[in-house]
Structures are given as structure tokens and as C-alpha cells.
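In the previous chapter we treated chains in isolation. Here, by contrast, the input contains two separate entities that must be folded as one system, with a combined length of 329 residues.
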Amino acid sequence: MGVFALAFGGLALALDSSIGAGVEARNVARMRRELESRIAFCMAVPPDPGTRRVIEAKDNRGVRVEEMFEPYLVKTAEGIELQDLWNLTIKVEADGLQAEAETVVLRQGG
Amino acid sequence: MRAYRRCRAFTLIETVLAVALFGFLAGAIYMVSTAALDATRITLEEQVSQERLGSFLRASRNAFVNVPASGEVFLRFETGGSAAIPELVFRGAGVFFGIPGLAGGEVILSAPPQADGTRTFSLKRIPPAISGSELEAARKAAGLPLLPRVEKVEWAFFSQQEWREEWPQGSGRPELVRLRFFRRDEPEFPVEAVFWIPPLEQGSGGSQGGGSVIDTNTP
């Protein structure tokens, strides 16, 4: 009986892990797609400089999005500050999973 | 006369019960193991499907980002069959989807219906300077299949702060293109992808040049 119970428990655990892995793989892929789409959208319509743009999960197919657009300060070796560089940060969150991306964007006037 | 000797052994009922219990437990383990193997197979198929979808979207993203200054993107409806099929046309562009030999003429991304009721994203090329029956044959050709088993394909184009469902030839260069469709394997959530097309003119309202991802963290 003990051997049977062990085998049954192990197989049930394997079944649960397998289903969990499938669901997680699907969610990770969905978040990754959302992240890439938001990067593309922000390239055309970035958030206002210095502000945080938030899209709640209920308005975005279950994925919460947070975007920030801030000046990216960088100087050359000669000490010249480079202009029109912006740091775009995007965070997405769904079903307890999180992903984040940062992009440097060259854009005149923000 | 031989003396009667009492033997210690299992009765028939005990043996039958033990065999039945053994059979029941073996059957339960067989069912769970079969389910575990099925779940593993489905998970693997799902991973392959997601990988294929990811590759398709990645290739599409690259195609849009690399539309050259002389290139044109527009939506056309092929009305040959029972229902009009939206066709996204890239005209005058270079290499598409990483496939050499597609440059020149038109490259068409569409999702024609299949025998099983789903659609398959496919890519076909209309060579430059053809007309008449040659053109007709090229348009009716099956194309290179990219992503099978999709449904309800919708395109939208973003320009001047609004999304439009139509983008006919001569509309210019949209800032963004949105593709939305359902997969037969995942009908509860639509797949939605937004593609950015870098603007051409200085001060056109879009960003001046591209961005580069310097750090990406994905679980």
C-alpha cells in the first residue's frame, strides 16, 4: 500500500507540475507580447515626460502596465551633455508574474 | 491413519479481495500516469505553438521596423472568394521576414481560410512588372504558411492620435499597426500585437529615430 501511495502521489505531483508549467509558459508569452507591444506604442505615443502612465489590468486583458518616460542624462568624454535622449521604462504584471524593459529613445522635445 | 494437520493460508475471499485491491490501485496509477503523460504532451505542444507565434510576431515586428523610406504599407481586401480577405501589402520594400528573394514588387501578408474553418497567416510575393493572367495567378497562389489555426483577424492603423480600421493605398505611412486575432488553441484571449513603423520626417510628431532595448527582464 505504501509503495502504491508513493507512486500515486508522485504521479499526481507530476501531473500538477506539468499543467502548471503549461499555464505559466502561456502567461509568460502573453506578458512578453504585451511588453513588446507597449514598447512599440510608446515609441509613437510616449507618456508625458516625468510622469507615470498606468493601465489597469481590467482595462487591458488582465495585464497591468506601468510606463515612465524620463530624461536620460549622459555626457561624452569631453563633458558635453547629449540632448534629446529619453529613458523609457515599462513594467507589466499579470497573474503574479512581472516583466520589465528599459529602452533609450532619441526624441526631440520629449 | 494420517493425522490431520492444520495449514495456515489465505482463504479464497482474502485472495480475491487482495487481487481486487491490487487491480484497483494499479488502475488508478495507470490513469494518473496516462494523464501526466498527456499533460506533458499538451504542454510541449503549447510551448512549440507559443514559440511559433513568437517567431511570427518577431518577424512581423522586424518587417515593420525595417520598412524603408521608399516603401509603402497599406491594407487591401481580396474579394476573390466568398468573403473579403484583408491583405496587408508591403510595396517597394527590401528583404522581408528574413527571407531573401522577396524584395521588389509586393509582399502580401494575409490569412486565407483553410478547409478546417481556421485561417493561416501566409506570405506571398507579387513580382514587379507582371500583369493579366500572371498577376491573377500570383494573387491566387497559396503563399508561404507562417502561422496556422488563427481566427478573426483584424488590422488597425494608428495615425494622428487615432486608430483606423482601413488604410488604403496612398494613405501614407502609419505610425503604428495593430494586429489582433484569436488562436484556435487559446480561444479565450485574443493575441494582440502593436508594431511600430519609424517615421521619416523630422518633427513629424513621432520619435526621431529608433530606440534600442538595453535591458530586458522577463521571468
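Chain A has one domain: 2-106. The mean pLDDT of chain A is 87. Compare these points with the single-chain example from earlier in the chapter.
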